[in-house]
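User: My instructor asked us to take a sequence, write out its structure as tokens, and then describe one feature of it. I'm not sure where to start. Here is the sequence I was given:
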Amino acid sequence: MLNLERLRTLDALARHGSVSGAADGLHVTTSAVSQQLAKLEREVGQPLLAKNGRGVRLTDAGRLLADHAARIISQVELAQADVEAQRGCAVGELRIGAFPTAMRGLLPQALAALRAGHPELRVRVREQEPEESMAAVVRGDLDLALAIDWNNKRMPVPAELTRTHLLDDTVDIAVPAGHRLADRTVSPGAGISLAEFGDDDWISWNEGQFCHEWLVFTLRGTGIEPRIAHIAEEHHTQLAFVEAGLGVCVAPKLGRGPVPSGVRLLPVCDSVRRHVYAVWRADADRRPSIRAAVDSLRQAVAGFGRGD
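Assistant: Let's start with the prediction itself. The structure tokens for your sequence are:
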């Protein structure tokens, strides 16, 4: 009889391509992964791994069994969803990934409501960029992810996932208090064109991240060749650089928190906004825990809208 946890380990190795990657995805040690795979090899009576330089690769038998493992795990998830749906209550464990501003601006309220309404549901949260968390949901490492894209640059969602829109998050441009545009009066519903920031240095996200690529794409679309002067992961760090007069940055409203006294926020007329949504595996669509989490997120969104 094949052991399900060992099949999960083999599946993780096939998806991540290495023992260390599988260990990270499963949140276990590399020695634990090696032990599970050694036991699985003994169970099937065939070698599943072969040396490949400093790493390993799947043998023909390993690839064959890994393909079966992926289908078995998907079927188990369907069975779990059906059992949860039959019980009609959210129980067990739910693993959520979210990008930083959603971690601050939505999840604390949503998780508090989820705990109050479903005390038997255990929730584990991981902060991740949207591309990483969606990939983790596809792999089965996460059950639910909060992701974003932008009104002028959409992020593709894998076919295995279902998504639901939560909110549109408008953004401002943060400038130093002494900036040439800082004291401009902007009438309600209007804003400043991004083209007016053509001479400014920008503080951006890490290169390769979706939001960094969006910023470069958007500025070039307005005729600006962006001057990325500084890279900072967190919005609060970016705002600290802005206050010091080192450039300007995009300042989303979600999870923004207190703004430094030396920073001014300017609305833009180019309708710059982020779409925030939740994604989960389509084969888990019937799980009450997924539905309960999405309902709690929508409650948190309603509270964010009232406070905006």
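For the description part of your assignment, you could build on this observation: The chain has a mean pLDDT of 88. Try explaining in your own words what that tells you about the chain.
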